[in-house]
Amino acid sequence: MPLKILKKITHHWHIKLISIGLAFVLWIYVENLKEIELSYPVPVEIRNIPSEHLVSNELPIHVNVILKGNERNLQQIDHSSIKAYVDIKNTTNGERRGIVKIDKNSIPRSVSIKEISPRVVDIKIEKIQVKMVKVIPVIVEEPPEGYLFQDVVIEPEQVRIKGPDSLVSEIDSIYTNDINVGGLTETIVKEVGMHLEDKLSLVDEDAVSAKIIIKEKFIIKDIRKSEIASINVREDFSVLIEDVFTSVFFKIPKRLENSISWNKFSLYVDCGGIDDPGTYSLPLLVELNINNVSLVKIEPPSVEVTVEKK
Questions:
Q1: Judging by beta carbons within 10 Å of its beta carbon (0-12, 13-18, 19+), is residue 213 exposed, middle or buried?
Q2: Fold of 34-118
Q3: What are phi and psi of 217, to 5 degrees?
Q4: pLDDT tens, residue by residue, 170-207
Q5: Which residues partner with 116 through β-bridges?
């Protein structure tokens, strides 16, 4: 029994083998005839914009393109190479509707375009206007404690912008990008870009120079002192200094207000050149050994000194 089955299977085996091969080829052929559809987001470009004009309205970022073809051909397409465009050749100022087309050279011939969505876009064409406008600096943050933002000098003070006539005609000034003065303890110069609305651009400069002026804050400190020394006294003289409380006024950086040791300065009078006993009015002098501190005034500015012979 098994032998009879084997004979039936192998009878005219070459014809059966050819039949199987033909069936496989036919299956491959039919499979290749099957078509599928794939959707691609494609950026839209505007072609043939008239000289000295631009498109001033917002356009769709992309259109949705549905392509139809066999799966193998569609999968071989680099969707970034598909180009969608609207041709506005021979148009002038105003609004119009443009038909979105696909550059046929960007897709294989064996693939067809089933749908483009949206198929039509609204386009507003305007003349380009150039205008000189003022630059306004935008300051943000604050310098550290003890420092003060004083001013910012912009160079140049005006720049030329260009864009659609309807927009540029309404603009007299533009703002810089944020100028952050936080952390600054000294005057610096830096390049600063502009904050521009869509469809606007700079004609000449990409940025302006900003001189940011930072000043240190100073305060006046009043120190009371009663001890007054004398110098350059003749060896045969003695001196008696008027007993007064003095106010010594110093200019100091605010950041050092609580860190200065005020025992590092002294008051004195200079008795050099006094050769006769008597009472003299001598100016008060300060010996100062403190960095970043300067003397403003002394009240009273002088004291009476009595010089006697020993």
A1: middle
A2: RNA Polymerase Alpha Subunit; Chain A, domain 2 (2.170.120)
A3: -80, 135
A4: 999 999 999 999 999 999 999 999 999 888 999 988 88
A5: 65
